[in-house]
Amino acid sequence: MSALEIRPRTETPRCDYFEAGRCRSCALIETPYDDQLRAKEGRCRELLAGVPDRAWLPPVAGGVRDFRNKAKLVVGGRRGGVTLGILGPDGEGVDLRDCLIQEPGIRAAIPRLAAFLDRTGLPPYDVPRRRGELKFVHVTHAPSGSLMLRFVVRSERALARLRQALPELRAALPEARVVSVNLLPEHKAVLEGEREELLVGSSLTMDVGSASLHLRPQSFFQTNTGVARALYAQAAEWVADVDPASIWDLYCGVGGFALQCAAAGSAPRSVLGVELSEAAVRSARRSAREAGIPARFEAADATAFALAAAPGELPELVIVNPPRRGIGPDLAGLLESAGGIRHVVYSSCNPESLARDLAAMPSLSVRAARVFDMFPHTRHLEVAVLLGRD
Length: 390
Prior knowledge:
The structure is a single chain. The protein is an alpha/beta fold and 390 residues long. It has 2 domains: 35-63 and 224-389, Rossmann fold; 70-200, CATH 2.40.50.1070. 30% of the residues lie in helices and 26% in strands. α6 packs across α7 (256-262). The protein starts with a strand and ends with a strand.
């Protein structure tokens, strides 16, 4: 029997891992999916209490299986007998290779990855004893079927062994277009270190609409490709409707919103993306160049960049997609006071911080809102709003 047995959409999915207490990551797996969606939208409606009912568009469902395009797998077990999944409460590895929330291409790759790691002879990292080499494997799956693999290890020794075994890895996983090794020597509860060594390729291409995005090993991208496409398409539709002459995409990452919105509608417009990561900016520039989209990208702190701009440099529309903490009082204050900014598209993974930021921008009212279920079976969600100046 599979780990996740899918029943009709309104019934409760069944997960052997959850029922056995081996994994509780999908905390809502026993809640009917329609109820999950209603609860998530209800939470957003409650937090954004001033938004009229007519502004809420139907939520975008994320599916009950085969939806995660990225697996962050803890390497556990023992030398020659690794597990890939999570760590249990006792620090022992729990193998989740049959978890059906992962895209099928990831599930197909995990057994081959485990066999490859067994053959390297490298020991998994033992958290309680603070010894071993292999910490994590990150697997990202593109719509084309290509993969990006990242091995997070402790030492130069493990890096050298993986480099030596690269021909064997490529034979076992020919769909791997990007392979990198990240060094994390410290005993920290984090997913990666600062040093990244590319062994194969440089970026994974994600087809999400009018422009393909190029993900490097440390790039951020939404974990649900289908819902990400819907989110970008919604933002582009809102932009086309209000038809601004100029756009800033702050916290732009690899350029998803900027590139899709630059191509929205028929009128040409000035588009600028701002992102702290120089690697992400290089990827965004490449995507713009390949798609023939005249968008510009700059590497800078988004809030500092906006606050330093002269009034005449401010755009008509601003897109923000900040981390969980939100945009904060300084940027919210600028958006509130700058009358030339007529509209804001705000995409948030945290409705609580979104509500705080909206309260700091009372002259910008919510014209449209929509929940995007990037993370089925969990309480996490993405919510996007279109703001307009009253």
